[in-house]
Structures are given as C-alpha cells and as structure tokens.
Amino acid sequence: MTADASAPRTQGQEPLLQVRGLKVHFPIKRGIVFDRTVGHVRAVDGVDLTIERGATYGLVGESGCGKSTLGRAILRLEEPTAGEVIFDGTDVASLKGEPLRHMRQRMQMVFQDPLGSLDPRQNVESLLSEPLRAHGLGGGKAGIAEKIRTLLDAVGLPSAALRRYPHEFSGGQRQRIGIARAVALEPDLLIADEPVSALDVSVQAQVLNLLEELQERLGLTYLVIAHDLAVVRHISDVVGVMYLGSLVEQAPADDLYEQPLHPYTRSLMSAVPVPDPVVEETRERILLAGDLPSPANPPSGCRFHTRCPWRQETRCDDEVPVLRELAPGRLVSCHWAEEIRDGVLHPKSPEEVAASMGASVRAPGAENPETDALVQGVDEPIERR
Ligand SMILES: Nc1ncnc2c1ncn2[C@@H]1O[C@H](COP(=O)(O)OP(=O)(O)OP(=O)(O)O)[C@@H](O)[C@H]1O
C-alpha cells in the first residue's frame, strides 16, 4: 500500500482495470429438463469500479453478495449479462483467439482453497512448470527449472518442495504454491478470491505480507476479495463494499475505516473487534435485522432498507440511491449519508427495524414464490450454469 492511499500512483496513465455497469444474472430454470426460465439471480447488478496500476482494491461483503461472480466476470470466466470490462485500454469482450489467451495470461487468480485448485496428482515442479509450458514461457527445460527455483524462493518455499505433492504441505504453504503458480506467468492483475479465509489467523498475516512483497517486487495490481473487512484493511489502497450485487460504498482504505458512511459498512465495521480493551468496551455494535434477501428478488428502493437501522419511510423503500461522491474519492449510495455522518439521524435496534418493516416487509416468496423458493433451496434445485 502506498503512503498516501488516495494519491494516484500513475499520474497520466489510464487505470489498469475499468469495470462499467457490469451485470451478471444467472437464469433460474425449472421443469423436468430445466427448460423454463422462472427468474434470474442478480449476482452482480450494475457495478462500476476502477483499479489504478500497482494499486490494491479490496472488495468486501457478506457471503452471496456477488464478489466472486464479479471477479470471475472480470476474468471472463463468467459471461456478463451487460456492461464492460476494460483491461489496459481494451474491452475484454472484444477479444478472441490469441489476444484473449494473452489477456488471460495477464490476469491471474488466486483461490480460497489451494487444495481444491491444485491438482493433487502433480508435484510442485509440475504444477509450476505447467502454466509456463502452456504459454510458451520460461525458455527450454533449463530456463523453466531456473524460473521455478526463482518462483519458489520468491514465495518463501525451499527447493526441496519441488518433489512434493499438495497434500504434504500446510494450508499456508499450499497458498504460497497457489500464489507462485499465479505469478509464474508474470501477470499484471492478480484477483485473489478470499486468499486467506481458509487459513489460521496466525498464517493469514504471513500470506498477506507475501502478497504485498510480491506486489512491490513485481509491480502487480490486485483485486482482493474477502468477506472480512479486517483482512483487506492493511493491504488495500481503496476498499469497495458490496451488498446484494451492487457497490454501496467505495473509499480510500484509511478513510473508510476511520469513518464508514454507509449503514451497511458501519454494521460490518462494528463487527470487527478492537484490540484495545478500553476502545473495545465502548465500540459501536450495530446488529442487523433479518437475513440477506434473495438476489433473485431484491428489495425495492435501497436494497439494504429491509435491514437498515437508519431506514426512513418511504424514500428508502421506493427510491434507489445512486452511488454518489460525498468527498473526493468517497462514494456512497445512501440517501441519508450526510445525516448519518453528522449524527442527525439515530439508528433503530434490530427489533425496531423488524417492527417498523411490519406488514411492508415482504415475506420470502410473496412476490415471486417460484423464484424465492428455488433460491432458498426449499424446492427443486437450481440448475447451475
Ligand atoms: N453459476 C451460478 N448459477 C446460479 N447462481 C449462481 C451461480 N454462481 C453464483 N450464483 C449465485 O449468485 C449469488 C452471488 O454468488 P457469489 O459466489 O458471487 O457471492 P460471494 O459474495 O462471492 O459469496 P461467497 O463468498 O459465499 O462465494 C449467490 O446467490 C449465488 O448462489
């Protein structure tokens, strides 16, 4: 992370990645041969974000809000329903054949579960040489061997690791192998999807430090996806918070942690314990009413209104808030962000929120019983694409 998180790192240069109006909607199919579309899961529903070269963008939000789908759509592992992904000035959707292959080489992914993403039958040497051979990189046999040794050294593993298999390593070491494999192709952008959430807390910091070191050394740009705000805090320049397929807040990391503006960000932040016992004692705790609504049938108006302690009738229920700039670099999609920031509006308890929603809270399935039942898994299974 740069000293001044809000400062542009590469003045005059265009950003490495620009995502504009990105939507990924998955059809929900029914019928004996799944031939009837009864609705759509709006996993990503109109996301705009920009990542400057050499910067780290931390994307957070609770499980199911669409973070992984967004990451996969950037890599074109998921076909967007609408919107654009501009990578290094080129619209990714316009690429085919060799240019698409080359673009894929320049964007790599680190997965949450290295055991699941590394072939258990391949030893480390084979795991690391495979992508190099596939992309014709590293020169001949000797060149590849040399490159693999350098990679192992860069991720802090001994050369004795070469002959060993993924199951012989600890979780942290396996993640180091996953990272070595991802950087082997000298990418520009690394998308790390929950890179440390499967690891012990003591190992998480080591892996995050390694990512930082590699970024510095190799000039990488990162999109780091996590459900935990604490994970992305120290490595991110900019943090984006997602709720039900949309970004609700985006800010330079220090600003966001100092003063979260969106009610959802505030509730996420209030769940992070503070190491100082005095501060911890007085820490604001915001409990949310209800569960994450179904992305197949999101609430009207502000999508967060059914759980929001600051909800105001009826504007929040009816009017979709736009992601607007409150201060330089600080984007928030809440009608009442200023009032909440200035303490003019006070939060309700989860019980009050639930009671205030009363009859207006939509019972699951009330608007679209088929869709909701499917998404919640109480009916027939959804065919996953
Ligand atoms: N291939 C698919 N077909 C249908 N629905 C999908 C598919 N992939 C994801 N979804 C749905 O899209 C929504 C967003 O999923 P996604 O995995 O992107 O969320 P996430 O925030 O990354 O959550 P997690 O951290 O649990 O992976 C979820 O409701 C999920 O069930």
UniProtKB/TrEMBL annotation:
<dbReference type="InterPro" id="IPR027417">
    <property type="entry name" value="P-loop_NTPase"/>
</dbReference>
<dbReference type="InterPro" id="IPR013563">
    <property type="entry name" value="Oligopep_ABC_C"/>
</dbReference>
<dbReference type="InterPro" id="IPR050319">
    <property type="entry name" value="ABC_transp_ATP-bind"/>
</dbReference>
<dbReference type="GO" id="GO:0005524">
    <property type="term" value="F:ATP binding"/>
</dbReference>
<dbReference type="InterPro" id="IPR017871">
    <property type="entry name" value="ABC_transporter-like_CS"/>
</dbReference>
<dbReference type="InterPro" id="IPR003593">
    <property type="entry name" value="AAA+_ATPase"/>
</dbReference>
<protein>
    <submittedName>
        <fullName>ATP-binding cassette domain-containing protein</fullName>
    </submittedName>
</protein>
<dbReference type="InterPro" id="IPR003439">
    <property type="entry name" value="ABC_transporter-like_ATP-bd"/>
</dbReference>
<feature type="region of interest" description="Disordered">
    <location>
        <begin position="352"/>
        <end position="385"/>
    </location>
</feature>
<comment type="similarity">
    <text>Belongs to the ABC transporter superfamily.</text>
</comment>
<keyword id="KW-0067">ATP-binding</keyword>
<keyword id="KW-0547">Nucleotide-binding</keyword>
<feature type="domain" description="ABC transporter">
    <location>
        <begin position="28"/>
        <end position="269"/>
    </location>
</feature>
<dbReference type="Pfam" id="PF00005">
    <property type="entry name" value="ABC_tran"/>
</dbReference>
<keyword id="KW-0813">Transport</keyword>
<dbReference type="Pfam" id="PF08352">
    <property type="entry name" value="oligo_HPY"/>
</dbReference>
